[in-house]
Amino acid sequence: MSFTKELFVAVSEFLIFTSFIVLLYVLRFYYDYFTRSASYPGPFPLPIIGNLHQYYYHQHDIPHWLHQLSLKYGDIFELYFGTNKYLMVSDVRIVERIMTSKKDSNYFVRVATKTGLDDLQRGSVAILYNANFHSWSYVRKVFFRVVGSANALRAAATLVNTVFGNLEKLWDNLIKERGQCLDSKQERSVEVDLVCWSKRVFAEIIMLLTAGQQPNLLSNYYDRIIGDNIQKNADEDFLDRFSIASDCVQYYITVPPVIRNIPIIRRYTKYLHNNLMWTRNYACNLVKERRKEIKNLGIGEKSASNVLNILLPSNGIPNENDKISLTDEEIGDNIVEMFSEGIDSPSNTLAFIIHCVGANPDVERSIIQEIKNVFGDLTDLVITYEDLNKLVYIEAVIKEVLRLRPATLTISRFSAHRDQFDGYEIPSSTQIAINVVGLHRNQNYWNEPENFNPSRFLEDNIGKNYNKNAFMYFGGGLRVCPAKQFAMVQLKMMVVLLYSKYTFEVTTKDPSTNYNVNLQCKELMTRIKHRR
Ligand code: HEM
Predict the structure, then answer these.
(1) Could you give the angle at which helices 484-501 and 361-375 cross, rounded to 10 degrees?
(2) Residue 266: CB partners within 8 Å, gap ≥ 6?
(3) Phi first, then psi: what are they for 41, rounded to 5°?
(4) What sign does the dihedral 456-458-461-467 (CA atoms) show?
């Protein structure tokens, strides 16, 4: 037999063998699919990729896709991310059952750690994906000390004031230097991308809160706009890498290892992974430096109350029963998580607030009226934490924005055991995703859900207009966002400070969303000028 013939036979045998394996895999996949217990409706999945192809096809508008799916398949349906099946839930009875605050909850774990998270060594560290109750509750206590108590919130309000002061100086200079007079009143205005500024504001706040240091992101960004130097500096590089690092975790959770390791895709996997490692090293170095600083403190000198100092074992939480000694790497992971959670959600929300208010002049008028009612004047406001509780209309606006543009489109939970109630069955080890969009736009729970109407959240209407389990803006139960009050303090303060000093004319028609399950405002071009 000639060499070519031998090669032909070998290749054919290889192809037949591979096709046979693939066929077996496909048969097995569909056998499992058609014989699964507790089957719910949902789009038909493909082997290996599940419904990922549909997910990526709709990546420009995931909220719309999720909403359409819940209209088509109802308040509980199945969706496959790769080989992982997710039970998408937007029925308040099931949400109430899952989002319980009981310590022995069947739904404590957020996502199964066995593949993606374990590959990243994230299954039992920090807070967001921590499946170990003991170490998770320790970190929650640290969070409470820094962003939960009234004293912590008062201190946080001071941080917001400081960072806003920096922003104001830069914007005032920008209007002076680059402003154009486009209206008959000859007032200067300048066009900015609010997303870029908003992101930097919250990044500076979270850096101060977490590590007690300010990365000068606002002034560096200003220098890049105003100067000829278009290079990003190290601090801005850090900000970009943190966004990529959170994408990396989502990617590892949703994309199965077999796809992540396909040669062309492996390059992308490596790129995400390298960024995650970069952020881990960055945070780990912060820990090491802080350890040295604490060692060098004089007698009687106390380190500041920020997350990093509290997490360092020598400064640990003052409760003997909690004794947990975290390694530098684990403390670093906590810091990375605070950055990734503490920047995007509030900054996207603020950008969406400006967008929604821009399209509703009546709402803007009511905001201004409330600021005048509470503070008496729009100039030289001194905002205290106590004043913030009086801002009921502004709070309603923030809630309405978070209803229509929730920071997280789905909230994950994993069932430890089989659960059965109200005719529903949830098998053990089921990955559940609360379909936040499906809930927040559900006609059964909201009047005219597509309309932007902050009044639905005013005191008089509460209880009449909505069911609290249909409103998962900060999640719920044991794992509710631990920074809920802190986030509201930041957002209320930013709304008061921004609207009392500036007017905004939004030029971006639709701030498009990004491709992952966290809702992103990509760009918000806006003309800003001083409010007279
Ligand atoms: C507008 C601002 C924010 C929104 C809308 C928001 C929303 C959420 C939501 C929906 C969850 C999931 C809760 C659940 O699973 O039930 C969550 C969790 C979390 N958030 Fe926030 N968040 C915001 C700001 C922040 C900030 C500023 C921080 C940090 C300082 C933060 C830290 C966290 C952490 C650590 C978790 C995980 C909690 C756990 O698993 O126990 N969030 N957030």
Answers:
(1) 100
(2) 260
(3) -70, 170
(4) positive
- Comparing CA positions, the residue from 399, 354, 345, 350 lying closest to residue 514 is 345
Question: Which residues are registered as beta bridge partners of 84?
Answer: 81
Cβ-based neighbours of 23, under 8 Å, separated by 6 or more: none
Count other Cβ atoms within 10 Å, centred on residue 341.
22
For the chain, first and last CA: distance in Å? 92
Pair 58, 64: CB distance under 8 Å = yes
Residues 6+ apart with CB under 8 A from 469: 92, 95, 96, 99, 476
Q: What is the per-residue pLDDT across 253-304, written as a single tens digit (0 to 9) for each?
A: 878 888 899 988 999 999 999 998 898 888 888 888 888 887 777 666 666 6
Instruction: State which ligand 1 atom lies nearest to the alpha carbon of 206.
Output: 30
The helix/strand count (H/E) of the chain reads as 19, 10
Q: Which contiguous run of DSSP H or E holds residue 425?
A: strand 424-426
Cα of 385 from ligand 1 centre, angstroms = 21
Q: Which two tokens stand for residue 201?
A: 């504001």
List, for residues 40-68, the tens digit of each pLDDT value. 999 999 998 899 899 888 877 888 899 99
Distance CA 128, CA 122 (A): 9
At residue 35, φ and ψ (nearest 5 deg) are -110, 15
Cα–Cα dist 136/127, whole Å: 5
* Segment (H or E) for 341: helix 328-358
| Beta carbons within 8 Å of 232's beta carbon, 6+ residues apart | 220, 224, 240
Distance CA 413, CA 292 (A): 39
Nearest alpha carbon, ligand 1 atom 40: 128
Q: How far apart are the CA of 143 and the centre of ligand 1, in A?
A: 11
Distance of CA 370 to CAs 32, 172, 394, Å? 58, 24, 8
Strand 84-89 to 431-435 pairing: parallel
481 is in an annotated binding site: yes
Q: Ligand 1 center to residue 434 CA distance, Å?
A: 15
Q: Is 519 in the pocket of ligand 1 (CB under 6 A)?
A: no
Residue 456 burial (CB < 10 Å; 0-12/13-18/19+)? buried
Counting atoms of ligand 1 from 1, which one is nearest the CA of 209? 30
Question: Which residue stretches of 61-193 are H helix?
Answer: 62-73, 92-98, 116-119, 133-143, 150-178
Ligand 1 pocket test: pick from 403, 471, 481, 492 the residue with the most ligand atoms within 8 Å of its Cβ: 481
Q: How far is the CA of 436 from the centre of ligand 1 (A)?
A: 14
pTM: 0.90
Apex 279 CA angle, 274 and 285, nearest 5: 125
Q: By three-state DSSP, how is residue 506 classified?
A: strand
Pocket test for ligand 1, best of 403, 474, 517 (most atoms within 8 A of CB): 474
User: CA torsion, points 64, 67, 69, 73, in degrees to nearest 10?
Assistant: -160
ipTM value > 0.90: yes
* 353 Cβ below 6 A of ligand 1: no
